[in-house]
Amino acid sequence: MQDFHNAVALRQLWGKGGFGKSEIAIEFAHRHFEHFSIIWTFYCDTQEHLDQGYFHLAEQLGIPTQRKTMEQLKSKVHLHLENHSLTTIGDGELLEY
Prior knowledge:
Layout: H1 21-32, E1 39-43, H2 47-61, H3 70-81, E2 86-90
Parallel strand pairs: 1-2
């Protein structure tokens, strides 16, 4: 894995339900939490849940949400997360450190 302090890395787990993707992501987050400023998980079973996840994350990060389209909001969240953050997509669990 790349040096956490010099790069923003994106890792993706995908596959059929029930194979442990969320558990792997959560275990990784627990083992490496000190390298990240925030760890967040999205519910992705519907587009509405994914959009709600972005909205709530924007609020948590202090990003204004009024009068923004969902695409604008996602763009603002992505820009904010470029600072060595980990985003996991799965069961909707927030890990705070």
